């Protein structure tokens, strides 16, 4: 069987590695184009491409998969099965109809919940306690295809998007290893998704990163965890961006209970953390990043002595 693998970020790497470890014939890999990375904007290949190159696999990186040239390249490969995992582009019908075993996708949510491009981040930001991986047949809609198999993975308060990406990538590879023999043998009984239960996890925007101190402590706690390790949350301090990379799980606070301060007011600022008034109490920031500086623990930040009790974050 000729398998074409399509994926881009670290999430997809364990699935590709599993295919190679299990001896499947991966004829080529399709990944997103190299992107500038870091402050120096160095052109950097995506993780899936790095693995493919290390394993001497042919790599295609079309800017637009829907272009006639890109479709023709894939048609020439004549894959029997296409496996995708966080590829990042929608497959056109000409490609979906190409392989005799179909196109399947390793998706980081329990479908039909959290269809779309940011299911892991949105699950955490929305306070879910359980997420998972669904393997489905791909269709023309956004993550609407029939479900083949799935597995649940719990989300703990210690998890961030980073830790959940790792957990779900490993769970997805394991589920794919268990599913492929059944699919190849024709023993799969796919289940249609109930569209009435569908929810969507749209890609994150800058507005998703801004902290609204009027929200509850739990909502802010979940927001920050869902944005780590990529962007972090942010607020404004002295009209400059002040990033928040970690905050402590909300606990009852005497200073918050007895305070009449407006949300966003700093109630305490010491090496133990920056306690900020929220809509229903307070939350303690433990890792921050002032404008023009690197991310740092609060113990390092407060030694500068520039933020004091009564400071307003907006």
Automatic annotation (TrEMBL):
InterPro entries reported for this sequence: Fmt (IPR005794), Formyl_trans_C (IPR005793), Formyl_transf_N (IPR002376), Formyl_transf_N_sf (IPR036477), Formyl_transferase-like_C_sf (IPR011034), GART_AS (IPR001555), Met-tRNA-FMT_C (IPR044135), Met-tRNA-FMT_N (IPR041711)
Entry EC no(s): 2.1.2.9
Keywords linked to the UniProt accession: Protein biosynthesis, Transferase
Any one annotated GO CC term: cytosol
Recorded superkingdom: Bacteria
Reactions the enzyme catalyzes: L-methionyl-tRNA(fMet) + (6R)-10-formyltetrahydrofolate = N-formyl-L-methionyl-tRNA(fMet) + (6S)-5,6,7,8-tetrahydrofolate + H(+)
PROSITE patterns, sorted: GART
One annotated GO molecular function: methionyl-tRNA formyltransferase activity
Domain Formyl transferase C-terminal: 204-304
Domain Formyl transferase N-terminal: 1-179
Binding residue positions for (6S)-5,6,7,8-tetrahydrofolate: 109-112
Function, as annotated: Attaches a formyl group to the free amino group of methionyl-tRNA(fMet). The formyl group appears to play a dual role in the initiator identity of N-formylmethionyl-tRNA by promoting its recognition by IF2 and preventing the misappropriation of this tRNA by the elongation apparatus.
UniProt family annotation: Belongs to the Fmt family.
Record-given protein name: Methionyl-tRNA formyltransferase
Gene transcribed to yield this protein: fmt
